[in-house]
Amino acid sequence: MAWRARQQDLLAAIGIEPDAELVAAKHAAEAKPKASRADRFQHGLASLAAFAEREGHVRVPRPHKEPLEVAVAGPGREESVETVHVGPGAWLNNQKARRAKLTPGRLAQLAEHGIGWA
Questions:
Q1: Fewer CB within a 10 Å sphere, N or C end of the chain?
Q2: Is the pLDDT of residue 46 over 70?
Q3: Do 47 and 17 belong together in one domain?
Q4: Number of folded domains in the chain?
Q5: Closest-CA residue to 96 (of 81, 67, 117, 73)
Q6: pLDDT band for position 20 (50/70/90)?
Q7: In this structure, are residues 58 and 111 in contact, taking their beta carbons and an 8 Å threshold?
Q8: Which domain holds residue 17?
Q9: 21-35: per-residue pLDDT in tens?
Q10: How far is the C-alpha of 38 from the C-alpha of 60, rounded, in Å?
Q11: 58 CB neighbour count, 10 Å cutoff
């Protein structure tokens, strides 16, 4: 990463300073804990279930976003509830494309929610 430091030095030499707001946003994003694959699958399944309950079917448009409240562990291990917007249509398309690699348990969970190809 020496090249990055060199670039920053060159930019500072010509009077270009980092945007404090962007730097703060980057640090906040890096501090946020990553969701595991199992968590992402459960978020997708929960958003699909919420959509199906509300709409009465599982034909989710690909660009649709479903708000979902999830528990998030903070830096001090304290939990808080955060609303995330999950795209169940895109998630479902990805699951279908990878269905040969899905475990029988995950396929069963999808079938329980009315997914015919599972």
A1: N
A2: yes
A3: no
A4: 2
A5: 117
A6: confident
A7: no
A8: 1-31
A9: 988 888 877 776 677
A10: 21
A11: 17
